[in-house]
Amino acid sequence: xxxxxxxxxxxxxxxxxxxxxxxxxxxxxxxxxxxxxxxxxxxxxxxxxxxxxxxxxxxxxxxxxxxxxxxxxxxxxxxxxxxxxxxxxxxxxxxxxxxxxxxxxxxxxxxxxxxxxxxxxxxxxxxxxxxxxxxxxxxxxxxxxxxxxxxxxxxxxxxxxxxxxxxxxxxxxxxxxxxxxxxxxxxxxxxxxxxxxxxxxxxxxxxxxxxxxxxxxxxxxxxxxxxx
Length: 228
Hints:
This protein has 228 residues and is of the alpha+beta class. Helices cover 28% and strands 30% of the residues. It contains five helices and 13 strands. The strands form three sheets. Strands 1, 2, 6, 8, 9, 10, 11 and 12 form an eight-stranded mixed sheet that branches. The protein has a three-stranded mixed sheet with strand order 4-3-5, with no helix packed on it. Strands 7-13 form a two-stranded antiparallel ribbon. Helix 3 packs across helix 5.
């Protein structure tokens, strides 16, 4: 069973702490021979920038004073990937899963590896975008979901960065739904200086109810991640 949980609008620091508690508890349960629950958490954050373990500080283009002026925070965190932005109108997903309980659809009976897990996160986003007639794709060598990745207009619509220990995952994805994209102009998103960002609202020309997108994400998560 996958538990779908909506935290609503939550400060990043609070969500990070809550995630860590879930993550640590699931690892403890596995060490004791128990079967932890698989939690699929969705939320939004006030304006914040996060940078992963191997990110470069120079990809943040604002001074601490300017960050304060625009009402944004900045955190160094323990996921993969470089710098990204979270803010209102963006759905952030934190699947805290035990991959040893989950199986790829193509091979029920064998648990997911980390690369397969990330591939399925991307597929989940691609499938949800398709519901709106938007074609999301992968870009070789770059985790996440893109629009027209092979063109000069390549633009990222969903960032993905995860951490795993003992096959338990945390962190996840950030899908731009009705996001104010100007906040990406203050960074080199995910370390790229030659590619843009977009949102579902920009691609469609109108805003989309974020609750509707969340329901689709929950449906796809339950479909793609099969329990062993």
